[in-house]
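G., the chain you wanted modeled:
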Amino acid sequence: MPKLDKPKILVVNDDANSLFALTSLLAQWAEQESYEVLAARSGQDALRQVLMHDFAVILLDVNMPGMDGFETAGAIHARERSSDIPIIFITAFATDELDRLKAYQHGAVDFLFTPVIPQVLYAKIAVFVTLAMKNEELKKQARQLSQRTTELTASNRRLTNEIEERKSVERQNHAKDEFLAMLGHELRNPLSAISSAASLIGLPGVSAEGVHRAKKIIQRQSQHLGRIVDDLLDLSRAMSGKILLNPAPLDLAALVATSLETYRATGRSTDYDLAQDLDQGWISGDCTRLEQITSNLIDNALKYTPPGGRIEVRTWTENDDVVLSVRDNGVGIAPSLLPHVFDVFVQGSSTLDRAQGGLGIGLSLVRRLAELHGGSVKAESRGDHCGSTFTLRLPRIEHQLSSVPAPVSRATHAKPRVLLIEDNDDGREMMAMMLGGYGYDVEAAADGVLGLRAATSYQPDLALIDIGLPGIDGYEVARRLRADPATRDIKLIALTGYGLADDLRRVMDAGFDRHLVKPVDIDQLMEVIDTCARLPLAQPVAVKQ
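Predicted structure as tokens:
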């Protein structure tokens, strides 16, 4: 334990001889009792000493000129820090009971009469010095205990935080494991259907109707796989902040009505009572992303509502917001899950079958897309089997009038000659057969070098070029085609699995005319080819190297 400071004794006396006698007498025992002796010649001097030091006891002369002992004692005890210092009055005169009462009222603990008897003085001083040392030791122990308590509290807080962080990580890991298992399930279902349909087409004796149905299954399940990949890519983009919006004024009610009509037309809402109450509300937003928000909220309601259940979709304006609400009477959300429904890799357990599928990442996308639009989304539920309500709020703008673009009509010109550069054998063969089936004259190449040779010899009107080619990639193929006077006027369409804004910029900088993200819908591809075919001849392009 650290060494305690020595207690201090203050002797106050206006008479120099008396002051010297008392301090000398006390000094004889100072080393033995381990205390220090200080002196003061007046009440004012005593007050200054009290301001600078703490004292175990004060020996105070009663009869001093100016400020006497009683006044000095009163001033010392009027100060909070020195109010508890014991004071022993020293006087040469016998005191009556009134004087003693006055002294005690001013904080005196005892009287000594001069001449002072050394043994009596020693006994009294020793008591107060011992008390001061004990008090100081207790204070120091209290400070150490307080410090230790603070350290233990901080350690306990750190330990609690570590335990919570560990539990959070364990929950996230468990959720990721469940997500990966569910992803495997969602991928195997369409792959199994595609594999079975492809095998059926190759069987001898299969009817034309069977082949037709198998082809429809392959097309439908391929689109389903594409949606799964799109969801994963969108989640990755949302988490990394790489989603870029293309905002325009639109009526949220009209957008939601179109989405609901799609659900009814495709039969996805047939087994449900799907009600709508849509009031007009104008916002500035990306139409595609807002359709994604709407679809994910409705999909979520369908997934967790048993057949025959009711789903209500409403839009209205409220102050400066346009509000979309999707309410269902399905399985509801447990209180423990409600704060986490928008977290990544979190999905409520459902007693329903998984016929409608999904990865359980839709709500995470909804929240991120809502925030990108300057809005918010929240979930409400009274608990299990009590249904749930999801409410989207977006900033309202003034009513906008927009012109409707004229529909694009298909051209009647001759079909262009097409060069297809694709390194995937199956993909190249299927694309070439599909284009041939639509009446296009197609030449195919398996890599960039062969594609450049074919462009020179075949002289196509249009080239479909995969970006991820071996040897030289699609960007370099485009640059070389644009740099060669013999091929610079060929219309170039990029085929890539990357669809971010930076990817589009790189494609256009390399000299492409259009950018398509795989898997490419056949109708979209036909429209892009037709549009490119009607473009005027390309002007010389300044290609970035």
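Residues 118-201 form the longest helix (84 residues).

Shout if anything looks off.
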